[in-house]
Amino acid sequence: MSEPILQVRELRKIYHSRKRGDTLAVDGVGFAVEPGEVVGLLGPNGAGKTTTIKCLCTLIRPTSGEITINGADAIRRPKAAVEYVSAVLEGNRNIYWRLNVRENLEFFAGLQGIPMRRIQGYINELIELFHLESKVKTPARMLSRGMQQKLAVACALVKRTPLLLLDEPTLGLDVEISHELRGILKGMAARGERTILLSSHDMNVVQDVCGRVIVINDGRVITDDRVANLLELFRARAYTVELSGLLSPQDAERLQEQFELIQISPDTSRTKVEVELLRNGQLYELIELLHRSGVRIESIGRRDPNLEEIFLKIIAGKES
Fold this sequence. Notes:
Layout: E1 6-15, E2 23-33, E3 38-42, H1 49-56, E4 64-69, E5 72-73, H2 78-81, E6 85-88, H3 101-111, H4 116-129, H5 145-158, E7 163-167, H6 175-191, E8 195-199, H7 203-209, E9 212-217, E10 220-226, H8 227-235, E11 238-244, H9 249-258, E12 261-266, E13 270-276, H10 282-293, E14 296-302, H11 307-315
Parallel strand pairs: 3-8, 3-9, 6-7, 7-8
Antiparallel strand pairs: 1-2, 1-4, 4-5, 9-10, 11-13, 11-14, 12-13
């Protein structure tokens, strides 16, 4: 088995402030990322994920813990570790506005000490991959936000580091550009070209691109699992029941008392019940209660939850 390209152990970060006192932003975070993985780093605002990413980039020094990137100690030897990682943080801020598209790519390659004669071919590939051919000589400041975002990701890739960190890569983009960028990342993931740690509030991007997700809340890792496993786990207990007729207020209240995760949607002469069953035997209890109510069950089917629903339930502490 290969060594993880990224290893984080007991990472803690405390911000000190005379006015507000100490703030514990990251509290013992630990995880590993294998070469070629595409991992989503999720969490609500203030959960600690951005601080974690900035620690991985060596932009912030953690209070304690360990970070190893491709074998290099990112805390004791940050200059050695940063050679193996590139990042796009907080949107498109890592490009230079006065340089055009090609100049930006050449500049960031030069920062890594890559000779121009060796990188020009790859720069041409990136320009084609991100559909920037018509904008090669356009200054970055004159590009649309979507084009700027694509250029920012391309500039991170041109460094050819094995680890790529993306913080909200599709933030503020229109649907077309977001879908295009998602397709590029998905293709890179399928080809195993980079190891990617991606932080995003766009669950469609995470579900489409990432094979695994790490969920952080209150500075701690609360879930670390394959996306497929989470989708199957929550699918196995999520049901939709179609009823012919309407439930009485008393029957609806009885169902809501017995089943914590239930949504009852009455129509003019029909009712849809969406429920998540948290233990064995609850399906039979549900059917029995519905029979007693006098309404006829037309259909019972499994419901496919999306990653956004699962994330919200995990954060709410309803993942078990």
